[in-house]
Design brief:
- The chain contains no helices and twelve strands.
- It has 132 residues and is an all-beta fold.
- It has a single domain, classed as Jelly Rolls (Sandwich).
- Strands 1, 3, 4, 5, 6, 7 and 11 form a seven-stranded antiparallel β-sheet that branches.
- It is globular.
- Keywords: Lectin.
- One of its GO terms (cellular component) is extracellular space.
- GO terms for molecular function: lactose binding; laminin binding.
Length: 132
């Protein structure tokens, strides 16, 4: 478990940029954005080799203990031992995830008007966090 941020206050039109280092022997890492630890609007989980997925980004949402349907992205711009820069742009109805050379959107299934919570877990070391 990496740092946990609360009271972020990210609203539609704002974005959060995360920079960090991926472990040389990484299996997977996670970034969660939501209202708090129980209401996750976006669970972002790049998997190098975990849970039966290889080089796949799996996204989901979580409402208390209930996960939604998994969304898989085939584009995988991450490298073990490398650095990563990911920007999450909050929109009215979804979150746009900006990756190196690729972007995709994930629906705001919980209809969160503000994203207050962010955490990282797994084989990722957070180096900087910025929002605008």
């Amino acid at each position: 478990q990496g740092p946990v941020c609360t009271n972020l206050g990210l609203k539609p039109g704002q974005r959060l940029t995360v920079k960090g280092k991926i472990a040389p022997n990484a299996k997977s890492f996670v970034m969660n954005l939501g209202k708090d630890a129980t209401l996750l609007g976006l669970h972002f989980n790049p998997r190098f080799d975990a849970h039966g997925d290889v080089n796949t980004i799996v996204c989901n949402s979580k409402k208390v203990e209930e996960w939604g349907a998994e969304h898989r992205e085939a584009v995988f711009p991450f490298q073990k031992g490398g650095t990563a820069e990911i920007t999450f742009s909050v929109n009215q109805s979804d979150v746009t995830v900006h990756l190196p050379g690729h972007q995709f959107t994930f629906p705001n299934r919980l209809n969160l008007s503000v994203f207050d919570y962010f955490d990282t877990q797994g084989d990722f070391t957070l180096q900087s966090l910025s929002w605008e």
